[in-house]
TrEMBL record, chain A:
This is Thiamine ABC transporter substrate-binding protein. InterPro entries: ThiB-like. It comes from Streptomyces violascens. Residues 1-22 form the signal peptide. PROSITE patterns: PROKAR_LIPOPROTEIN. SUPFAM superfamilies: Periplasmic binding protein-like II. PANTHER family: ABC TRANSPORTER SUBSTRATE-BINDING PROTEIN, THIAMINE-BINDING PERIPLASMIC PROTEIN-RELATED. CDD domains: PBP2_TbpA. Keywords: Signal.
UniProtKB/TrEMBL annotation, chain B:
It is found in: Cell inner membrane; Cell membrane. It comes from Streptomyces violascens. Its main location: membrane. This is Iron ABC transporter permease. The chain crosses the membrane at residues 58-79, 91-111, 131-150, 186-208, 228-250, 280-302, 341-362, 374-395, 407-428, 464-487, 510-531. It is a multi-pass membrane protein. Residues 53-249, 337-531 form the ABC transmembrane type-1 domain. Belongs to the binding-protein-dependent transport system permease family. InterPro entries: MetI-like (IPR000515), MetI-like_sf (IPR035906).
UniProtKB/TrEMBL annotation, chain C:
One of its GO terms (molecular function) is ATP binding. This is Fe(3+) ions import ATP-binding protein FbpC. The keyword Membrane does not apply. It comes from Streptomyces violascens. Transmembrane segments: none annotated.
Amino acid sequence: MRSTKRLAAGAIAAALGITTLAACGGSDGKKTSGEASGSGSKTVTLVSHDSFNASDPVLKAFTAQTGYTVKVLKSGDAGAALNQEILTKGSPRGDVFFGVDNTLLSRALDNGIFTPYEAKGLDRVPADVQVDKDKHRVTPVDTGDICVNYDKKYFADKKLAPPQSFDDLVKPEYKDLLVTENVATSSPGLGFMLGSVAKYGDEGWQDYWKKLKANGVKVVDGWEQAYNTDFSGSAGGKKAKGDRPLVVSYASSPPAEVIYADPKPTEAPTGVATGTCFRQTEFAGLLKGARNEAGGKALLDFLISKKFQEDMPLQMFVDPVAKDAAVPPEFTKFGAKITNSATVAPDKIAKNRDQWVKTWSSLVLK
Amino acid sequence: MRLGLMALPAVFFAVFFAWPVAAIVGRGLKADGAWQFGRIGEVLGDPDIGHVLWFTTWQALASTALTLLIALPGAYVFARLEFPGKQLLRAVVTVPFVLPTVVVGTAFLALLGRGGLLDQLWGVRLDTTVWAILLAHVFFNYAVVVRTVGGLWSQLDPRQEEAARVLGASRFAAWRTVTLPALGPAVAAAALMVFLFTFTSFGVVQILGGPTFSTLEVEIYRQTAELLDLPTAAVLTMVQFVAVGAILAVHARTVRRRETALKLVDPAQTARRPRGAGQWMLLASVLAVVALLILLPVGVLIERSLDTPDGYGLGYYRALQAAGDNGSFLVPPIEAIWNSLQYALAATVIALVIGGLAAAALTRRGSGRLIRGFDALLMLPLGVSAVTVGFGFLITLDEPPLDLRTSWILVPLAQALVGTPFVVRIMLPVLRAVDGRLREAAAVLGASPLRAWREVDLPLVRRALLVAAGFAFAVSLGEFGATVFIARPDRPTLPVAVARLLGRAGDLNYGQAMALSTILMVVCAVALLVLERIRTDRSGEF
Amino acid sequence: MLKLDGVTVRFGQRAALDAVDLEVADHETVCVLGPSGSGKSTLLRVVAGLQPLDSGRVLLGGADQSGVPVHKRGLGLMFQDHQLFPQRDVAGNVAFGLRMRGASRGEQASRVGELLDLVGLPGAGRRAVAALSGGEQQRVALARALAPSPRLLMLDEPLGQLDRTLRERLVVELRSLFGRLGTTVLAVTHDQGEAFALADRVVVMRDGRIAQTGTPLEVWQHPASEFVARFLGFENVVPATVSGEVADTAWGKVPVPAGSPQGPVRVLVRPAGVRLVGEREGLPCEVVGRTFRGSHVALRLRPGGGPLLEAECGLEGAPGVGAPVGVAFGVGGVVVLGEE
């Protein structure tokens, strides 16, 4: 295999030569490609999913603090990004991976892609999100809640109280109002189903979905479509004449509706049904075979530092895990405080996920 | 000589396609060092998979037939009739090709969905029906037919048809007996491409079909990217291979029977102003179809990009302009455009070099079985899921000097895999139609084979080359699947930036996504118009 | 200049050229004449290097050309259907060979002007080739082939598609042009009139072999075989037994020149050697066809036995169809043909 690779490499040199010439304009692309390799490098590479984001000043602060420059590689959504790490286990593309959530955690741990490291500052993180606190293979970085959002205007116009719990959603007054996502293809869709499992147990959740279906739940494939097209409360949904005032989305969606509006409204147009939430926690870990382990450890420390944790909410619309991190005022003012979100243990999810998805599909889609 | 031409494309495909795909399929089917063929029967025996396979196939066939039916008159009108704004319109119909499916889905729902045109006029809603999928496939692939078939059509000598008319053939009979056979290879090529695109359709099926419709491609994506069930994904990939291979075989047979040297003429001489009620009617109906099926959804996007809370205005565009200082989430649109253009340009050059060489090698007559096999092989990337190739890259190109996993070049390479089949398909019929004796005439006059190719073939196929380049460019510009999978330093392209914006709540995000989509369309249309210009300016060079 | 030495080309089982030997001297114009399928076009392609040999050698100026690619042979070839480059104008076509040889723009322009004058198309340089008439295309093709001053100019059916008057005029022009330029020419044609008018020497081919070589006069006067005779348009060929100076044929006794080969042969009687005599004096025939040929009338006669006879007679007194005539043979019009 090795010699084949060498041979092939030589043979395609010509092909690459051509393309490099063609793309000689891509100067900043070159800068980022070559230098990450090599030990003792001053670059530390963070591999993540497409939603990862950090502001430049914060990343610069890390460099000032530690001397390491962060290079970020994004590849696909959370599931795809993790699976790519599993495939390249032992010869990873970077040093730290960020973005395993509790629905995927078991897969990451079972495949052994992380080197244990106890990040500095974990004492500021509540124990209940430290799922792997014995081995420290992963470090919790953020949490988020998947909840039903409602269109305030719709319910005000109809003089109807918006639903607040899972139980409310199957009531006749909310018939034909909810749109959710396909559990098989969408992360919030999966979260909402897991929430129902947590709430009604291994047997009861199926009955719940039968009732939901009878109550006219609409299922679409992705969050983008549900939120931007079918949900009547979002900016996109209004333009698309969306007719569903309830949507499965995030607890952070209402603040986003305010922050990303111009002019800013005094009140969020949407609200959160606080009794319908499922808690997602995202973790990061040091990749096995990382070229720059020291840099990777420094980066993990930094991910739970106050500076990064306070930058995170407005970059990724998630909640910090560090207790000392202040949440931006928009979050507290326009968002909802979720105290009772449901959750399911990662290993239980890992064990039952396929079966649950199959059952859900045959219950709801057929 | 032929082998020499073939070497580079062959190596390219071996390294960047065959090897990665074989590696990922092999990994799936092999457990503990032994092949697990039992999985094949297990997966194929699953009735759900059978259902998916059936739906995938029939919707692809139906989409292809519908596209041909709707687009062939368009190909004629664009090839043979002269009307104002033709160049612009030809560029515009290609625009859907570059649009991310998420955006198209949104726009298309405005036509077929709740409150859409059909709903308002007749109370008909086609969203979440298979009609929405089929019509969206026509929307995407209209340009494939118009450009590949129309490109050749405009160069066919109209006197051939006139000769048949004089011999007593009706207008339609003349078309059927003279023009259609000459167009045969181009129509077959276009049909093949449309079929492959629709067979592997992903976003359209998801958004417009809803969760009840699922294609093989969606299933492979789920099994690979979400569930990491490589054995199932491997079996499905092989099923897709077999299906695509069968279609390629059928295509090869129909085309080979028909291939003849055609007498090509300057397209400028074949187009004329419409004459008679029939031609005016045809022109009008084609324009109506274009307006309804393409301009309307595109118009909806533009309208939404301008529809700010303060009324119509450029607010979202200004917001884009201001972006960039708050983190790496948003990049200034100029930067995203620049990234997109660079990637697309690199991919186009790769596709032209690889595809051009392959087409030149395949042109030489008397090609053996090996060569024909290669011809088919070149089409396979269109029939293989981006996720399969992307994951294959991960486990093969992981060692220096081929450790390209984190290199920017992987993006244009993956895009070129999709662009190359276009180049080959478009170039081949035209190259084969070039009279070999022209090359001989050049050789006798002292031109070396390479020089003869440059002096004789190139000027004759320049138009086809530009059409091919346009497609490769458009495909690369709009490519999202592979681009989003391949880990890359954060230089988002326009489609990636659009997807990020759509992935967030908030009016500004949605509006900016629409604005960026509009910019993407404009960039594409401008690039295609520039290509058309090059052709016009240079055709009179000698 | 050109020497072919046992050149053989096979297409599958069939030999398109079968051990052909041929020489063309400097400044000579040689015309290869033969029906379609006789291998004459293949001959040109072999010389040009467009067709690989199965055996034999092609020498140009004494040098073996095996391994010399087409573009390095320095030849001119005018294709049967011209093969003008459609995307170039007239000047672009004529200048092509010069460009390939790296001539400067100035040289190209002056040479193009010179050649267009030469072929009678002065000032046509900017015209599109698609807009030219057949004759004009022909001239452009000729100018293109001549422009680089090739050491050997080859013409494939040079006047094939032109109308008769144009063809006759062009033949004369070409002949004087080649004489003036001192060009060495190898042409192929199926038209004997064209060949005889153009060539210093004629080579008749049949089924990939050379059937006869000679000056136009020699070939015309003494066709070597029945094939050549018939190909030249002679119909009056009949099996005969020669003894002394008389041949015994189905038409009766025919006088043959002294020293003719004896025994069973074939005899050709030119139409001019068929004299009309009184109805009772010679071989009795009936006139079955009568064609006006401008300077004379061609008659087809049916004798009592043997094949039809062709005869010529003056415009005046030509018998009508159905008239009985008598025929006598003049020894000057009789040729004893060699064995096939």
